[in-house]
Amino acid sequence: MMILLKISFLIFVVVVCSATILINRSMDFLTRYVLFILILSFYFVWVFQITSVLWLILVCAIGLIVNSSVSRIKKMLLLLWVVLFVCFYRVPMLPSDFTNYVGDEYDLHCQSVECVQITQHESGHLQTTIEDITFEQFNSYFFWAVGEIRTEQQSIKAWNIAGFWFPVE
User: Fold this and answer.
1) Distance CA 129, CA 162 (A)
2) What angle do CA 19, 23, 25 make, to 5 degrees?
3) C-alpha to C-alpha distance for 9 and 140, rounded to whole angstroms
4) pTM of the entire predicted model
5) H helices within the chain, ranges in order?
6) In this predicted model, what pLDDT tens digit does every residue of 30-66 receive, in sequence order?
7) What is the Cα–Cα distance from 161 to 166, expressed in whole angstroms?
8) Cα angle: 122, vertex 126, 130; to 5 degrees
9) Are residues 34 and 27 in contact, defined by beta-carbon separation less than 8 angstroms?
10) For the chain, what are the domain ranges?
11) Whose CA is closest to 38, among 63, 15, 19, 10?
12) Which of 43, 38, 30 is nearest to 55 (CA)?
């Protein structure tokens, strides 16, 4: 039911954006087209939580700013604002984002008080090991986040800067 609501809202956004942007003849066609893509991309990030579309928002916003007729200082300030917005939006705010990173990067899948380590041997069979979590911490700041998890056998700590995870040894 929720997906139908999101799709119907998407259709509404497409129709309204198309009508508004295509009817407005004060801008050239390329500017209107990039603006249309920018609005739809922002919608996909906001409603469907597809954060990889942020790069398309960044490119469209840079194109619109560079093509605008404002002074260079205003262009530089707008570019800085757009880059900071994208960097801020990519920083994870929830501990589950760090847990997903640990699962993807280290095959250590954690739930509440324990983790399951999955390893594959040369023979092809999988082995799972259950480990208790001894310490878990996640802090999110404006442009970066820090996550740490310790189990009985290993310790994983990573920094997230502008949406990119960097492991700390």
Assistant:
1) 33
2) 150
3) 31
4) 0.70
5) 2-23, 29-48, 54-67, 72-90, 95-106
6) 888 888 888 888 888 888 878 788 888 889 999 889 8
7) 8
8) 130
9) no
10) 2-90, 95-168
11) 63
12) 38
